[in-house]
Write a structure and sequence with these properties.
single chain, 6 helices, 12 strands, alpha+beta
Length: 224
């Protein structure tokens, strides 16, 4: 992937960076740097390609996804490169600056930090006996009227591990699993209850939570 991108894109004043092998294990395959500590980074993970612009190690663009490296991909990347080289991203607010602006405006108080969110993820992915449904809301969303429960806690599913922008996470340790058995048969339904195990882990890692009886979920607030 790295060689293909380099041979098809003119990075202008951007410099291709070397990076540690451990970073490569995170999916990073190409890192290009400009003045002002602006980087364009490319990742390959789970048979998907994505890329992003960061400044001072924080996102200043959205995450762009593609399924293959085709002509459309190279045109889009070249356009993005031209914008970077023209300095369009030098003064864009970082994620932290945007978050702090919202926190001040809404007079919010932080309840979680990076360490706590990592402990939460470890508990849910390594210590729970089953994947537990959850949903989350970020500070950049006006509302989340209907919860969309998922059970994947990977980087793409869990807000790209951008913990600082998570307003809350709602976890449902009592849930029903529907197993498809074909068009002519009704789904098999398996009820799960791992509430006790979930609460033990929340206490173990000292993660603050509240129970919402109306939605039957446990709420972990990033901010409130």
């Amino acid at each position: 992937m790295k060689t293909t991108i380099i041979s098809n894109i003119d990075f202008k004043s951007g410099v291709v960076e070397d990076f540690a092998e451990m970073t490569h294990m995170d999916g990073l395959v190409l890192d290009v740097r400009w003045k002002g500590n602006v980087h364009l980074r490319f990742y390959h993970r789970w048979s998907r390609f994505w890329y992003i612009v960061v400044r001072n190690e924080e996102p200043v663009s959205t995450y762009y996804h593609v399924s293959k490296l085709d002509e459309g991909f190279f045109k889009s990347v070249q356009k993005l490169v031209n914008e970077i080289d023209n300095g369009n991203f030098n003064k864009k607010k970082t994620q932290s600056e945007k978050v702090m602006e919202i926190v001040r405006k809404r007079n919010l108080t932080g309840y979680m930090n990076k360490t706590k969110w990592k402990e939460f993820l470890y508990a849910m992915t390594e210590e729970m006996m089953i994947a537990v449904p959850y949903d989350f809301k970020t500070l950049f969303e006006d509302s989340r009227e209907k919860l969309l429960f998922g059970t994947s806690y990977d980087i793409e599913s869990f807000n790209y591990y951008d913990f600082k922008s998570i307003e809350w996470v709602k976890v449902k340790p009592k849930f029903s699993e529907h197993i498809y058995q074909g068009r002519l048969m009704e789904d098999k339904i398996i009820d799960h209850d791992v509430e006790k195990e979930f609460l033990v882990l929340m206490e173990k890692y000292h993660i603050p939570y509240e129970y919402d009886s109306s939605e039957e979920v446990y709420v972990i607030y990033g901010y409130r």
